[in-house]
C-alpha cells in the first residue's frame, strides 16, 4: 500500500481487460457516462496499465491468450501498490470451481457473460463505494492529520517490509531522520499555530521532492520526519539529504530565535546499508537516530552520515 489515495471528487478509473474488442466496447457503452474507462487486450497489458494508472476497479476476463485472468489477479494482489484495487472477474465460465478459484485468487466478485447492464453497473458501483470507504479508512489510519504525509504507524509497518525487500533483492536501503532546529523556541516566539503552519510547510517541501517507487516521507514524531529510500546507497542518500535541506531552506521561513540561521533549518541523520549485511531494520533506524544526534551536537543545520550501523560518524556543515 502507498500513502496516496484516489480523490473522492475525481471520476473513478475503470480498467476493462478482455481479449474480445466487442466486449470492451460493450463495457465502454455501459460505463462511459460515469467513469473514465481504460482498456487492455491481454494480461501483460493489464498489468502494465494497472501499474501506470492505479485504477479504482478492474473488470477482468478469466480466459485470455497470454497470462490468464487468474494469474493477473494474483500478481496484482502481490503488489502492495495495487493490492487494494477491487478485481471483478467477468467471464463465460459458469462452473462453481472457476468461480471459487477466482475468488480465492483475490477477486472481489464474479460476473458471468453475457452481462446484464443493470447488474454489472450495480456491482461496480457497490465495489467502488466499498473501495472509497476503505481508502478513507486507510487515509485516517496511515496519514498524519496535521501534515498529510504518512504517519508513524505507516512507517513502522513499511520499514520492516522494505528491509525484507532490500535483503531479498540485494539492494541497499537508506534512511534519513531529520528534525527542525530550535522548534521549541519557534513555538515560544510565534505561537503554536504558527508552529503548526511551519510543520505543514516543511512536510510539504519534503514530500514535493521527486520520489522513486517505494520511497516515502513520514512524520516520525513531533517535529521529526523520516525519509525511506529504497535501492539507494550512502552517496545517493547524501544527495537526497542535501536536496531536503535545500528544499527547507528555499521555504525561507523566518525563525526569530534560531542561533544558526535567520531561517528555519533542519538537521539530518543519514544511515545506509547494503543488502546481505547482518543488520536489522531497527539497527538502521538507530544508526540514523545517532547521526541526527551527531548533527545536532555538531551545531545543527547540517547532515551527518553513517555508512552502516557500526559506521563512523562525520558531519557535513551547510
Ligand atoms: P533541537 O534543535 O535540538 O531539535 O531543539 P528543538 O527545540 O527543536 O527540540 P525540542 O525537542 O526541545 O522541542 C520540540 C518542540 O516541538 C516542542 C514541541 O512543543 C514542538 N512540537 C512537537 N509537535 C508539534 C506540533 O504538532 N505542533 C507544534 N506547533 N509544535 C510541536
Ligand atoms: Mg527539533
Automatic annotation (TrEMBL):
Its EC number is 2.7.7.65. It comes from Pseudothauera lacus. Gene3D superfamilies: 3.30.70.270, 3.40.50.2300. Residues 171-308 form the GGDEF domain. Pfam families: GGDEF (PF00990), Response_reg (PF00072). CDD domains: GGDEF. InterPro entries: CheY-like_superfamily, Diguanylate_Cyclase, GGDEF_dom, Nucleotide_cyclase, Rev_trsase/Diguanyl_cyclase, Sig_transdc_resp-reg_receiver. SMART domains: GGDEF, REC. It is an enzyme of class 2 (transferase). GO terms for molecular function: diguanylate cyclase activity. GO terms for biological process: cell adhesion involved in single-species biofilm formation; negative regulation of bacterial-type flagellum-dependent cell motility; phosphorelay signal transduction system. The modification 4-aspartylphosphate is found at residue 61. One of its GO terms (cellular component) is plasma membrane. Keywords: Phosphoprotein. It catalyses: 2 GTP = 3',3'-c-di-GMP + 2 diphosphate. This is diguanylate cyclase. The lineage of its organism: Bacteria, Pseudomonadati, Pseudomonadota, Betaproteobacteria, Rhodocyclales. Residues 13-128 form the Response regulatory domain.
